[in-house]
Design goal:
One of its GO terms (molecular function) is [protein-PII] uridylyltransferase activity. This protein is α+β, with helices and mostly antiparallel strands and about 900 residues long. The protein folds into 4 domains: about 15-205, Beta Polymerase, domain 2, CATH 3.30.460.10; about 210-275 and about 285-360, Nucleotidyltransferases  domain 2 (Four Helix Bundle (Hemerythrin (Met), subunit A)); about 365-655, cca-adding enzyme, domain 2 (Orthogonal Bundle), CATH 1.10.3090.10; about 720-820 and about 830-915, Alpha-Beta Plaits. It has 41 helices and 15 strands.
């Protein structure tokens, strides 16, 4: 049949089979259009199914994503051409067509490029000679209905040539789509007229307008999809460093230079052969990933989620190696490709600037924080300022003195000037000059340490160094973690990006920009003695990730080697090593230990040893958590860290550490008595006798006041059960206080009500009064910005708790309804249980870690309640998919759990909770 072009050696067998089937259908349908249509749809559906299966099989065998995308496009071409041919031949045949009875059919947009993912949209332009006629309307309608019957996602427009040009002038999206228009079938002269007039009447003279619009559009898209190319669940199509960035490069090259292919980019001088090869590699890899994603998910899934990462890595054939899992190796490759895409973008932008096609404000969009003085004396041979950016005076600047590769970025920071793309390009091509001699050169290390500890914009400059490859080449330990992803839900960025962001947070605290958010860090940062050590530790604290050895210990070893090389003295080097080895300690103690327990503070203080280290560790901990990703830091974590700091400081300075527990209790009681001046002596004496010493030592005075008034009001009303709610916007928590008769399952009921409501518990404090009543505090992570909304949620949870305690509903049923019925998450988190009797004087500490899920805390508290354990406090930490919960417990008579048999029972019950994810013990 003429409707299908001759198959090439790389075409799918399904295309040739389709031609044969259609010839048979046309031969026997007997003029019955209903029969013809049904047979045609069946044949086309079969061809699509077989073609997709063939394309997937070929992809699995040759792992060529670009070839797969082209096969799928040619398959779609065959289907569209077949529908058009049958439509004009049988459904709307015109023996002698007039001009009004002609049309051209073109592929536009992504389909116009001749590449498609398995579930890509099919964008079509029905091109008319002038206005639409009854015939053309009928043809378009018939074709569209058949395409929709095939379940294809169609994007279409029906326009004349004049209308297309008019729309393109006013709409940049339509202009871009026409730029990629590709003739499919129909009146070819009509399509050629559009091509010629589009070039002459739309493109000519509008190059600068198009460049500015496309780059602004890119900025908006990236801001929406994730500003960093190193987000751990990237959008392969729309994200930074993804396919759309490659598309933009070709759009700009085609619009400005008329270049459509990598080879054409070489001819017009945009790329050299190595860059053109890089473009091809990036294009193929991204198509490979995207096609695998579509095939694996069965839909147009563009976000490379954690679940798909494992699947795609297996489909491509990655295996575990060098201490990295198959997923981590695959994602490192992905991020390195994304980085290459960024390099290619810079090359094209530099060329566009040379043609004066792009105004300065757009070129400098990544350096908005930096000042741009008009005249600057650099004072360094080989460099000059060009259009407010630092560039080189010749191609031999780096070969003449390789230290200039560091000096380029030092000058950028010192003068707060952006670096010209030409200079960055030359730096990338000169990376091999950074050898051992350069790494050990005192001047090179001095320049680098100046950049690292700068008070200007170290984060911006370090990121530019990383993008250029200079950072990883100069610090090989850092180079190993470039583009390294950790396969978990906690970390939002690759390791190198996290380290650079950590240093950026530190620089902003140092500059006084974060006083309201981090008041204590702001207060103490200018009192520290080892500022340089703190900056180096922030930069290196995770540099040993991805190795078999514990990264904190391995990182400390690296710091002891790197410190002297960078110019640190012995004391600074040892401080850096200590900070790296202990960079997780303060966060762990603050979030998963009872910091009101004196033993916790004594143990932590013994590790820290000096006030200087305490200050440095606090600031580093804040910066580390803050740089993990959006939403990870909150006021509650800040409050815990500040409390730990304030409790530990006296231990290190010889302050109140000598005061006995009895004296501290008496002081706390006197403090509350002063606040409750409206209470008479007898009432207060009776009240203070109701609380055990642990209550007076653990609870801050503001909460003691709330508790006292709450309990008095409850009992005055004759109630035996009451629940108070409140919000704390600064700490980012909502407080739930329950006063009720003590019951072994009380905490389980409370955590179950929270789980049933989808509330996340940040912490729990549990107290029993001397007269057998429970006073329990739950601290919930905020879900709403507005206090009224948050209070309504808290009151709903309170009503659920009250109803459960009165026997009006079963918490277990509510929790079961909340449990997900979807497959398990794609993470393997081993269950861990540590039973420790040394962390607290009065309690056994159970530290439980495992895969998080809705209702987990309820399941654990229920299991511990069945073992007749009293839970004094619970400390809940979630690191993405990993839950780490610490419970301070005793037996029913208040003793620690020391019997091996009892410990074995606890271990068995905890493991059972994690082994049974579909139903809790309740």
């Amino acid at each position: 049949m003429t409707m299908l072009r001759a198959a090439s050696p790389h075409d799918l067998r399904a295309i040739a089979d389709l031609g044969q089937r259609l010839e048979e259908i046309e031969a026997w349908h007997g003029g019955d259009k209903t029969v013809l249509r049904a047979a045609l749809i069946d044949a086309l559906r079969q061809a699509l199914d077989e073609g997709h299966a063939e394309a997937e099989a070929a992809l699995m065998q040759d792992q060529n994503g670009l070839a797969c995308a082209r096969r799928l496009s040619r398959l779609t071409d065959a289907v569209v051409r077949a529908i058009h041919a049958v439509t004009v031949r049988h459904f709307h045949r015109v023996n002698v067509p007039s001009m009004g009875e002609r049309l051209a059919l073109a592929a536009v947009g992504g389909y116009g490029r001749g590449t498609m993912a398995p579930h890509s949209d099919v964008d079509l332009l029905f091109l008319l000679p002038y206005k639409q006629t009854a015939w053309s309307e009928s043809v378009v309608e018939t074709m569209l209905y058949m395409l929709w019957d095939l379940k294809l996602k169609i994007g279409h427009a029906t326009r004349s040539v004049d209308e297309s040009l008019h729309e393109a002038r006013g709409d940049m999206t339509i202009r871009t789509a026409l730029l990629e228009a590709r003739f499919l079938t129909g009146e070819k002269k009509l399509f050629e007229e559009l091509e010629h007039r589009f070039a002459a009447e739309v493109v000519a003279g509008t190059e600068q307008e198009f460049v500015v619009a496309k780059l602004a559009e890119r900025d908006t898209r990236i801001a929406r999809a994730g500003a960093s190319r190193y987000v751990v669940e990237p959008n392969v199509k729309e994200g930074k460093g993804g396919q759309r960035d490659l598309n933009i490069l070709l759009w700009l090259a085609q619009y400005v230079y008329g270049a459509r292919t990598p080879d054409a980019l070489i001819k017009v001088g945009l790329f050299d052969s190595a860059e053109a090869a890089m473009f091809r590699r990036c294009t193929e890899f991204l198509w490979r990933v995207r096609c695998h994603m579509h095939f694996a998910s069965g839909r147009a899934e563009e976000r490379l989620s954690f679940g798909l990462q494992r699947t795609v890595s297996e489909r491509i054939g990655y295996a575990r190696r060098d201490g990295m899992s198959s997923v981590e190796r695959f994602m490192k490759r992905y991020f390195l490709v994304a980085k290459d895409v960024g390099d290619l973008t810079a090359v094209v932008c530099a060329a566009l600037e040379a043609r004066h096609a792009k105004p300065e404000p757009v070129l400098d969009r990544f350096m908005r924080r930096l000042r741009h003085p008009r005249r600057v004396r650099l004072g360094a041979s080989g460099f000059q300022v060009d259009n407010n950016r630092i560039t080189v005076t010749g191609d031999d600047v780096f070969s003449r003195d390789p230290v200039n590769l560091l000096r380029l970025f030092w000058l950028s920071d010192r003068h707060t000037l952006a670096i010209h793309p030409d200079a960055t390009h030359l730096a990338r091509r000169s990376l091999k000059l950074i050898d051992r001699a350069v790494r050990e050169a005192p001047e090179a290390n001095r320049l680098f340490l100046d950049i690292l500890t700068s008070r200007n914009a170290p984060e911006t400059v370090l990121r530019a160094m990383n993008e250029a490859g200079v950072l990883g080449r100069f610090i090989p330990e850092f180079g190993r973690i470039v583009a390294l992803m950790q396969f978990n839900m906690y970390h939002h960025y690759t390791v190198d990006e996290h380290l650079i962001r950590t240093l950026g947070v530190l620089a902003r605290i140092d500059a006084g920009e974060m006083e309201s958010e981090h008041p204590l860090s702001h207060q103490i940062i200018h009192t520290i003695q080892h500022r340089r050590a703190l900056y180096v530790a922030a930069f290196l604290h995770d540099v040993a990730k991805g190795r078999p050895e514990d990264h904190s210990i391995a990182g400390a070893k690296m710091a002891r080697t790197l410190g002297p090389r960078l110019g640190l003295d012995a004391a600074e080097t040892e401080t850096v090593a200590w900070l790296i080895e202990n960079h997780l300690v303060m966060s762990t103690v603050a979030q998963s230990r009872d910091i009101a327990d004196p033993e916790t503070i004594r143990t932590f203080a013994a590790n820290v040893q000096t006030l200087e280290r305490l200050k440095l560790l606090l600031i580093l901990t804040v910066c580390d958590i803050k740089a993990v990703g959006p939403g990870v830091w909150n006021g509650w974590k800040g409050e815990l860290l500040r409390t730990l700091y304030y409790e530990t400081e006296p231990q290190l300075t010889g302050g109140h550490s000598a005061i006995s527990s009895h004296q501290r209790v008496a002081h706390a009681q006197a403090e509350l008595r002063k606040a409750l001046e409206d209470w008479d002596e007898a009432t207060f004496d009776a009240y203070k006798a109701r609380h055990y010493p642990a209550y007076w030592l653990k609870v801050d005075v503001s909460r003691k006041i709330k508790h006292a008034r709450f309990i008095r009001e409850t009992e005055a009303a004759g109630q035996t059960l009451a629940i108070a709610t409140g919000t704390d916007k600064f700490r980012g928590v909502t407080e739930l206080t329950v006063f009720a008769p003590d019951h072994p399952r009380l905490l389980a009921v409370m955590t179950g009500a929270c789980a049933a409501s989808g509330a996340n518990i940040a912490d729990a404090q549990v107290f029993t009064t001397t007269d057998g009543l429970a006073l329990d505090d739950l601290f919930l992570t905020r879900a709403f910005e507005d206090d009224d909304d948050e209070l309504r949620r808290a009151q709903k949870i309170a009503r659920t708790i009250e109803s459960a305690l009165k026997g009006q509903l079963r918490i277990a049923d509510l929790v079961d309804q909340r449990r997900p019925r979807t497959p398990k998450r794609p993470f393997n988190v081993p269950t861990e249980l540590i039973i420790d009797n040394s962390l607290s004087k009065n309690y056994t500490v159970l530290e439980i870690a495992g895969l998080d899920r809705p209702g987990l805390l309820y399941d654990l508290t229920t299991a511990l309640g069945k073992l007749s354990l009293n839970i004094a406090s619970a400390h809940i930490v979630t690191f993405g998919e990993k839950a780490v919960d610490a419970f301070y417990v005793t037996d029913l008579i208040g003793a620690k759990i020391t019997q091996p048999g009892k410990q074995a029972a606890i271990r068995k019950a905890v493991i059972a909770v994690f082994d049974d994810e579909d139903a809790g013990p309740g």
